[in-house]
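Researcher: Predict the fold of Arylsulfatase.
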Amino acid sequence: MICILATAAFALQVTSVAAAERPNILLIVSDDQGYNDLGQLGNGIITPALDRLANEGTRLTNFYVAWPACTPSRASLLTGRYPQRNGIYDMIRNEAPDYGHHYSPEQYAVTFERIGGMDQREVIIPQLLKPNGYKSGIYGKWDLGALRRMLPTSRGFDDFYGFVNTGIDYFTHERYGVPCMVRNLEPTEADKGVYCTYLFQREALRFLDEHADKQPFFLYVPFNAPHNSSSLDPQIRSSVQAPEKFKQMYPPVEVETRVTNKYRYGTPATVATAEARRRDYRAAVTCMDASIAAMLDTLEQKQILDNTIVVFFSDNGGSGGADNSPLRGRKGQTWEGGIRVPCLVRWPAGGIPAGQVCDQFLSSLELLPSFLAATGSSVPQGLVLDGYDWWPTLRGETDSPRTEMFWKRRATIGARVGNWKWVDMGDGKGGLFDLATDPGETTDLSAEHPQQLQALRSRYQAWLKQMDAAEPRGPFRDF
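Model: Structure tokens for Arylsulfatase follow.
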């Protein structure tokens, strides 16, 4: 298999892979999970399935997502293109519920959260795998458009069950009172009251029963765990909902709630304590982990686990009860804690070493070109990608071809070139950091290395110019 990346356009060309060798793909994405929230790292969280993936595969420690929050990160992992190139460079959500507003159905129908979505000219993973015989399913969080023409089955997926926006109540499946669950193209409330992680597990296992060992498949399971619950009830919203049996796996919390006069709705509110929020967060992760274990067990029973590419990572840095140590910052920020996330890759049949730790500079932009390389699928002529084939790097054959990466979230900026990182938080905070010796971004070296700082700023401006010159995509860009 040969992979050639054209430097200017990041174009990918691959030779065909024999049908008998085509691997399956299981892509699992958690929501707001912390960098240090893996059981094997020793912080007390319980994740036996994720630990299994780490022990039987490779754990990436220098892996980044393309944006520090949900929507743009998910668009980039599916397109292999920077948010500024694919058009999704901010959130598709409504702000009013943040301040207690409950939309009426008529109001909600014309809000941006309802009508916004990824540009229909963008091409995503299942569309590129389909000509090579792949069946594709997605079960969980879509977050790239709620209208029928923007839903997964209108974008190349064969089957979809999940919710369409940034977050929901785990039991009612509503986002601040608005029902959000969809099966293929139709809204549904059939499973209202059932904890949604169980539903996504159910659908993923059904997909495997129907398609595994019959044809190659791409199964995408984007959990909403452990994202905070989207509810207008402050006590629910201030934490993560989790089944009681998973809460009981952690030490009891002495005080569950507290009253605050600083809640965003502007009135005294009962909210979860920090201890309860931490417990609930961990319980939601452990519940998700049990669902992942069920998928791995099913693949193993069908004797296809070793030739299934299993990739797990978080869509962005952790928030709420998460542990991002030793990194600085959290979700929504361009500090390392907002963009560097846990990532695990297992594929024994593809030569991925077991029990290895890889500190090579890699990102979620690498997923699409790497999946295409592994499956012998091709890229349409003229499609510009921002990622690379990572398999030679994960096998230990070559260093990562990625040498730089850039982030822009409104006025918040991040740029990494080699081991140097420049951060501008837009509020006077930031600086220049040497990640080789200071991954926690504790020591600003701007004064000591002004030329290096200028070099990173220049590279960032060159990248921004390249993004501005790209073929425009909606929904945010003016064209």
